[in-house]
Design brief:
This protein is mainly alpha-helical. It contains ten helices and no strands. The protein has a domain of 30 residues. Helix content is 78%, strand content 0%. The model has no long low-confidence stretch (mean pLDDT 81).
Length: 250
């Protein structure tokens, strides 16, 4: 019986800290704020009468093709951690370098934009909480954060600096922080979807009653009056042909 053959190679000693859950959390945290709460919620106005859930399903299916392409490239080059390696080997080194520069620039813009939007999201949340618990101070603070551009820029800069310092503490600290934030966002998303499904089972009169109970008598009618005064019914009618057809799925 021959002796066992052992292959010896030099290693860096680095330990992989980022697992599948953390990778998913990092990717989801990029898009869950603006993609889920801002742009998706606004599609009721941007595309009245459209079947938004179906559109999201179709778009997600298309994007999954790109995701599988990345997965297969990662499987083919398991010891690399950059798009540059795969693109430079499959296509050309210049294209790999160009893609890396573009991704770096896009990520800078995304981080800056989301940090700026952060003040709007928190401001809106404080307004809703303040109205629900009848706290004028929270409402005023939320309005300041949502309207004042300087405040949004200052909060965004502070957010970027805070997470920059957090990143200096090591990948493990960063990983756990991202995972916790993803868990909070995921829980909030589930509650939001559950609330939307529950609201879909209610009649317009029930929704009006609950809205006025939360935000004060006449609040629901005030929203309708402001919307109609701004041309809401005419806009919906011009797009769908029926001023009453605008929601999901229409």
């Amino acid at each position: 019986m021959s002796d066992e053959v052992v292959f010896v190679r030099r290693t860096s000693g680095l330990v992989r800290e980022i697992g599948a859950l953390s990778v998913m959390a990092i990717a989801a945290n990029y898009v869950i704020a603006d993609g889920f709460y801002l742009f998706t919620a606004g599609l009721g106005y941007e595309a009245p009468g459209a079947h938004i859930p179906l559109a999201l399903l179709i778009g997600g299916s298309i994007m999954s093709l790109a995701a599988f392409a990345v997965i297969f490239l990662t499987m083919a080059t398991p010891r690399t951690a950059s798009d540059y390696v795969a693109i430079s080997r499959v296509l050309h080194p210049f294209l790999g370098y160009l893609e890396s520069i573009l991704v770096f620039g896009v990520h800078i813009w995304i981080v800056g934009a989301l940090s700026f939007f952060l003040a709007w999201f928190w401001g809106s949340a404080l307004i809703q909480i303040g109205l629900a618990i009848h706290n004028p101070g929270l409402v005023s603070l939320g309005e300041w954060m949502s309207v004042d551009v300087g405040a949004a820029a200052g909060i965004g800069i502070a957010f970027v600096i805070a997470f920059g310092v957090l990143s200096l503490l090591g990948i493990r600290v960063f990983k756990y922080t991202v995972n916790v934030l993803f868990g909070i966002a995921l829980a909030a998303g589930i509650i939001t979807v559950a609330g939307a499904i529950y609201a879909a089972t209610l009649s317009p009169d029930q929704i009006k009653s609950l809205w006025d109970m939360t935000y004060g008598a006449g609040a629901y009618d005030e929203i309708l009056n402001v919307a109609n005064a701004a041309g809401w019914r005419d806009y919906i009618a011009s797009v769908t042909g029926d001023p009453n057809v605008w929601g999901w799925p229409g």
